[in-house]
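To: structure subgroup
Subject: Chain for Friday's discussion

All,

I'm putting the inputs and outputs inline so they're searchable in the archive.
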Amino acid sequence: MFSQLQAIKEEMDKTEWRKVIIAYEPIWALNTGKIASADQIQEAIMLIRDWLRDHCTEQTSNDTRILYGGPVTETNTENLIKLQGVDGFLIGSTSCKPVFRNIFDMVHAQAQRDVSG
């Protein structure tokens, strides 16, 4: 994971990080349907933010959007949207299913609570 971030860093001016969106999915979850635990996701997101702070700037760490790209389902969305540091989801095949509307509604409702709260 960090080698990919380093490769990006080497090719960009530091001011360009504000244009970057990072999608994180554990390698072992790719195309398996296996879902990382909330703790695993939280830990990985915090490690990415720590790397950004250590190798770029505090501002970059705070401002870079990080999405969870693993399986997002109607069942796990409610817990995933509450994770600190996760700015959204990269939703794959579920976006082609009717249940996607329910996921969208949950995420939208949480975003409204975050803005008003």
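Points worth raising on Friday:
Helices lie at 2-11, 38-55, 58-63, 74-80, 100-116.
Strands lie at 21-24, 65-68, 88-89.

D.
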